[in-house]
Amino acid sequence: MKRSEINITSRRIERETVRVARFLSTAGTATVRAAAKDGIVLLDGGERGTISVAPATLAVLVRKNIIRQVNGRLVLSAEGVALARRAEAPQDPFRAQLMDLGSVTVSTDGGAERVEANLSESPLAQLARRRGRDGKPFLSENEVRAGERLREDFTRGRIMPRLGVNWSTPVAGGRRGSGENGIADLTDAALAARQRVNRALEAVGPELAGVLVDVCCFLKGLERVESERGWPVRSAKVVLKTALAALSRHYEPQQPARRRSILHWGADGFRPSLR
């Protein structure tokens, strides 16, 4: 192969690598499906859509530890997450990688505000760094990923806090129209994000939805959550872990175990049990 052809192939794989990393950063997970066209496969992100990619690109991503497989689905590794962050912030990519900067909605005394925050120092990120008495992380990777995914949809849905809102009930967002939270101005992507938030909160139930929104979306600290809800000290992290586990099962349902087939008495290989 000529050097020019190698350079073209290398640049194409580099572009595909960034595209896949950004897609998985948004989708969270994806399955690999066969495509009708030879030489490509499909990455199916469910509600987040589908993209085509060359198998050679996936091989490079696996070899470079950009992606890995969890429960039969592809997810980004830590290196992949960093790559996606750099791609989203071309003006200052390494600052975005190290600080995980993002725009979030916070609840203040003056109302709701949109601010830039270092998400690596969010309450969820701080809790993710804690370890139990056995030395293992208090939160699993799936639980942390679920909380981050809820926050991303919450942000994309442009959901703003309102005084006295009950977060155990669905967020408005079924259709466009006038009303609170600026529904009339929502894009299709924002509406879809709201619908995903609704489904996620409904899946975990009203008992757990509130703490997820408080910590993952409004970035409230655990002590503040305990104070506002009248909970015992150090109880919020236990409730939050339970809520994140339920949320993780909603986003990444476990594959049902395959049952062993029962051989009929007339089938080849059948042997009666002797008791």
Characterise the protein shown here:
The termini are far apart. This protein has 275 residues and is an alpha+beta fold. A hairpin with a 2-residue loop joins β4 and β5. The strands form three sheets. Strands 1-2-3 form a three-stranded antiparallel beta sheet. It has a two-stranded antiparallel sheet with strand order 4-5. It has a two-stranded antiparallel sheet with strand order 6-7. The N terminus is likely disordered. Helices cover 46% and strands 13% of the residues.
- Helicity, as a percent range: 40-55%
Instruction: Provide mean pLDDT, rounded.
Output: 75
Main sheet strand line-up: 1-2-3
Tally the beta strands. 7
What percentage of the residues does DSSP assign to strands (E)?
A: 5-15%
**Which sequence of SSEs, written as H and E, runs from N to C?**
HEEEHEEHHEEHHHHHH
Please work out how many helical segments DSSP would assign: 10
Morphology call: globular
How many domains? The number is 2
Class computed from helices, strands and strand pairing = alpha+beta
Q: Return Rg in Å.
A: 22 Å
Report how far apart the termini are: 68 Å
Describe the main β-sheet briefly: 3 strands, antiparallel
- Which segments are poorly predicted (pLDDT under 50) over 5 or more consecutive residues? 1-8, 92-99, 104-115, 174-184
